[in-house]
User: What shape does this take?
Amino acid sequence: MRFGEEAAERRTALAAAWETLPVALRLPTQFLGRQYAGCGATIGAMPRCDFTCRGCYLGSDANRMRPRPLVELRAQLDALRTWLGPAGNLQLTDGEITLRPEDELVALIAYARRIGLVPMLMTHGETFRRRPGLLERLMTTGGLTEVCFHVDTTMRGRRDGYDAADREADLDGLRTDFASMIRRARRTTGRRLEAASTVTVTRRNLDDVPGMVRWFLANADAFKMVSFQPVTAVGRTERALDGIGADELWQRIAAGANAPDLAAGEGYLGHPACSRFVQGLVGRRGGRTTFVPLYRRDRPAEMALLRDLLDRVGGTSFRLDGRRRRLARAAALALRHGGFIATRLLPQAWRVVRRAGSFRPRYFCFVSHHFMSAAEMATPLGAERLASCAFRVPIDGGLAPMCAVNAGGLRDRFYRGEPSARPAAA
Assistant: This one.
């Protein structure tokens, strides 16, 4: 696809996403409809898992269901591509998707990339530990460029003693193994691989969050993002697990990042009650790791720059580009926006680099994602969140909010082949 055609399709997808947002949510750091049209996920790709985690959003029938055939999953990807536009965010997930045959995984990844989606493979990671070389083969044969490992103390099924971990620090050795795996895969294949991690947060491990934050910042060369997800009473999740609020979670994230004003860099993808994120640079100052947000909401000049940047190049992505196309895209942007880049963008980038205290800082992003229970969905706030949901799944010819899939019974009805009790949101 030519750059001009891609840009026109991207603008259409972004405009449609922006229209889903109430005016009150069209905030200066709102990225839905400005940089992303949303995020999609597969369903039925592998409704099974070889773990028995205490926090699990799958239904009671999941491990008895057959995975959906590739032809059906390709149709799901086609629907998501229509919604998300070029370089749309796709999560290849359901149960533990790496249990699917390798050739089918390769086919799914390759098809997603071929139609213009950016697939991130969501996994507990144990399959990669049991089958050395699998990650590299998915990269070289399927074109995988993004992977996410879920690691926390609510999980049950690890080997090497990690199954009995009581505190999150007990899993730092496992996280280090995954970091080494990521570095090795990049080195041996010579290819790009972006890695993230998800963490279920409960009252029990909330105070371990600062330590996890420090670990991720120290390994920002391997991982570029961590998403903390407060536990929700859905699926097979043990009801004894206590959830936590967004503000107390972000207090711990800020403490671990040694950034008491972290909230000044907060951004959103959809409703602020659904997700928050802070993008920044990791550096070193005075012998200590530093984290500096890319922008601050309390600085009008930075907000004006962000607004103008998104107006000019919002939705632009290099994530599916090979080296030659990446250079061509960069040259086209420089030609069209050279003055803006030289006089405004580069000076701000230099200021952030100086704040980070390093000439070679690394990008990192903290995220919190807050799924709803059935009770929360039934409230006025829940209805508002569902209406502006940025994370959707193709079901019954529409795109259903993920919370409706998890807590509204849509997942179980999908597995059983029953029609949804209510229409999926388009």
